[in-house]
Amino acid sequence: MNKFNTSLKIFLLTFLIITVLISSLPTNTIANGSSETMENTTHIKNENELKNATKNASNNRPITIILDNDITLTSTLNIEHGDITLTSNKNSGFYKLISEASNTIIIGDGVLRLDGIIITHVDGTFGRGIGVSGNGQLFMYSGEISGNAATIPEIALSGGGVDNSGVFEMHGGVICNNTANSGGGVDNTGVFRMFGGEISGNVAGMGGGVFSIGTFNMSGGKIIGNTASYGGGVHCWLGVFDRQSGVISGNTASNEGDNVLEGSVGESSDTGQGWSPGHSGSEGFFGGNTGLTGGNNETFIDADESVGDEFDLRSGVIMWVGVVIVIVVISGVVLFFTSRK
What is the pLDDT of residues 190-232, one digit of tens each? Predict the structure, then answer.
């Protein structure tokens, strides 16, 4: 009996020690609501603390860096390695990273997650928001990339908000009020997947919202109210453009393609659930006038000649309110059959 009591005491003591150790492991809940065990968390208040935290980041242990106030960057923040989340410790709204440099952030081989922060520039300072290299990854969940101008005098730059050559996934947040020569919001030569969020109010020569010569997959979110000379909303030149859902509407182009302009696209598809008059919902639609170019034939449907503002690209028939244009491709020759109501 004494042996049994001794064994029971040892078991209970061991169980208690293990329970205490497990409960003491650090956890952190970031702005998108996820909880990470063993994640390193640090609060920062100035540029030096921020750069030291990112420099010491490890690929094996994600770090969450929490801004306790707005921070002005006198030089570019380089993310060379690690898995880093930037967020804000603010009850209402987000704290800002305000850059005085040509680029606010450049991602090298690392992973950056934006979840409740504003990436911007000092007023009157030229430079893009974030540059993502071929091995870099950017994930955006909330916050803003706004007020960046990749338009240094006499030098044409791309990607006012984001210049992506790696992988960029947008799940939420807003990319707005940025300018560039191409891709006012996003310039993509890598892989850009848009699941949510909004790209709006950006300005560029080509692709006010998005300019892409890489792979652009859209399955949610909105691209609205952007402006360009060519492709106010989206300008896809080469590469792949696949829209499954989401809204591309209310964009403006002074020359061609208010909402979507496609030229020499390697592969393009639109498998959204179509449209109904006055309805966007979660199904997604292209609204406003849209110009399209395709393949070597460079067939362009002039937005200025359109009568309506909605169409369905799923079946090979582009339907305008007041105009029906059926495009038939036979041995690489594009034939037009047009009728007016």
Answer: 999 999 999 999 999 999 999 999 999 999 999 999 999 999 9
Contact of 84 with 66, CB cutoff 8 Å: no
Q: Which two tokens stand for residue 164?
A: 């992506």
CB 183 within 8 Å of CB 208:
no
Distance in angstroms (rounded) separating the CA atoms of residues 209 and 60: 35
**Quick check: is 6 in a domain?**
no
Q: Which pLDDT tens digit goes with each residue over 266-297? A: 455 555 432 222 222 223 334 443 333 332 22
CB atoms within 10 A of CB 24: 7
pTM, two decimals, is 0.72
| Number of domains observed in the structure of the chain | 1
Distance CA 10, CA 274 (A): 67
SS3 content of the chain, % helix, strand, coil (to 5): 10, 50, 40
145 assigned to some structural domain: yes
In terms of residues, how long is the chain?
A: 341
Per-residue CA distances from 176 to 25, 161, 307 (Å): 39, 8, 29
